[in-house]
DNA sequence: AAGCGAAGTTTACAATGTCAACATCGAGGG
DNA sequence: CCCTCGATGTTGACATTGTAAACTTCGCTT
């Protein structure tokens, strides 16, 4: 397998920007070989430093995973915000656009998504991670709460239910999809239908 | 912390039913300390055998995890079937009863649920696991497809969308709940409302 | 110019999965 | 009845990993 280790330059004692290099290498490992393949030593090898070097920047493995997840959440937030803007521009409802963005992010950055939502080793008390998660949550909330200016505002419970229902729906779909749990259903779909049409059908007003 | 190791009897060389004992100990470890705490050696310690003994029954760690997950899926299938029967008896629609059963299983056997759906180390080609998953999928399908005998049968895409939507909804809810992602929302709920009422609101016809 | 502290390295240790060689024991065939 | 043979356990070993401690290098500040 990969174990890429580029290093033409003679290797100065100090790397220059090891922190960024490690995060970059870590992401590559995660996307290529999965979250469980990301070890401190593998990341160190990938950038050509000693196995204990990462400790200077991240403390322990949890630190590296958490900082990388924070990057993922910031990207995630931007993707959701972009979906909201795009939906506003085209007059579309918020939910379908948000749902597409959510699932597309999960599909295109599967390793990162798994790290963000399935890793037991994230330190949720880390400020950078908390902030990034809040950013994403805010974006999600904004996109989801785009409602046509129609009837009376719903009760607090109904409002929470609506938000949680949409989040659960798209998150469950993304999770099941990445885990291959939908493979059987997908391959049994009529010709011309695929993940995208299935998701669209799920997010269609008819179903919500 | 526990590291319980009961062993009053003098320890015969052969255990008697080590396979079952290991599975039992493994489940206890998983529920008490989480999936990542389940190691071959920890399970062996818990039942008082040598660290290499489990290999005789499960091959490797993946084998133990997979067999335990198969037990979980069989239990899960039974819980869903029971929910369906109960719904049929009371004339309730299938979806809410199934959703409750799904989420309750996840809450009451959180470690097992995590093993079943979040572990990267399950061997999906293992016949016992495949069979157990199929059993659960069938039960889920049965419960979900309970529909009032009303309008015309939907198109294949719509039918798939309906099933996947329900599954995604409850699975996403369970996953987010176990990951603590709903904690903020839950604590902001009006007095008297809790997880159950929130789930009920989500599964109410209004929302589907 | 000096040296101080951040950034890297080396060494070491415990835990784990896994393999190989060996020990034990019970059941079934002579 | 015994005896052997295969399943079940044990011991020992090895590579990998996270992590800590002691040491080294080097850019920046005073």
Explain the overall architecture.
Two copies of one chain form a homodimer. Chain A is mainly alpha-helical and 208 residues long. Helix content of chain A is 66%, strand content 0%. Chain A has ten helices and no strands. In chain A, helix 4 packs across helix 6, helix 5 packs across helix 6 and helix 5 runs antiparallel to helix 10. About 2% of the residues of chain A have low confidence. The first copy, chain A, binds a DNA duplex (30 and 30 nucleotides) through helix 2 and helix 3.
Q: What's the end-to-end separation of chain A, in Å?
A: 45 Å
> How many β-strand runs of chain A?
0
From the spread of the alpha carbons, the general shape of chain A counts as: globular
**Separate helix tally of chain A:** 10
Helix proportion of chain A? 55-70%
Radius of gyration of CA atoms of chain A, rounded to a whole number:
20 Å
Low-pLDDT segments, ≥5 res of chain A = 4-8
Please provide a brief summary of the model.
Chain A is mainly alpha-helical. The first copy, chain A, has helices at about 20-35, 40-45, 55-60, 60-90, 95-110, 110-120, 125-145, 155-180, 185, 195-205. Chain A is globular.
Blueprint of the fold:
The structure is a homodimer of 208-residue chains.
Chain A: H1 18-33, H2 40-47, H3 54-58, H4 61-90, H5 94-108, H6 110-118, H7 127-144, H8 156-178, H9 183-187, H10 195-203
Helix pairs in contact in A: 1-2, 1-6, 4-5, 4-6, 4-7, 5-6, 5-8, 5-10
The first copy, chain A, binds a DNA duplex (30 and 30 nucleotides) through α2 and α3.
């Amino acid at each position: 397998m990969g174990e890429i280790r580029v290093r033409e330059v003679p290797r100065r004692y100090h790397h220059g920007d090891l922190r960024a290099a490690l995060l970059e290498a870590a992401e590559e490992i995660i996307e290529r070989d999965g979250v469980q393949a990301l070890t401190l030593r593998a990341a160190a090898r990938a950038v050509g430093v000693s196995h204990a070097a990462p400790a200077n920047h991240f403390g322990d493995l949890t630190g590296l995973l958490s900082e990388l997840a924070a990057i993922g959440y910031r990207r995630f937030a931007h993707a959701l915000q972009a979906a909201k803007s795009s939906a506003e521009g085209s007059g579309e409802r918020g939910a379908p656009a948000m749902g597409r963005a959510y699932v597309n992010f999960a599909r295109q950055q599967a390793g990162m998504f798994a790290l963000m939502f399935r890793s037991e080793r994230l330190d949720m008390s880390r400020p950078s991670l908390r902030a990034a998660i809040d950013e994403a949550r805010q974006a999600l909330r904004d996109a989801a709460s785009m409602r046509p200016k129609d009837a009376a505002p719903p009760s607090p419970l109904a409002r929470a239910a609506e938000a949680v229902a949409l989040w659960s729906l798209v998150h469950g779909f993304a999770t099941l999809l990445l885990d291959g749990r939908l493979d059987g259903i997908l391959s049994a779909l009529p010709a011309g239908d695929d993940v995208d049409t299935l998701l669209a059908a799920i997010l269609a007003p008819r179903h919500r």
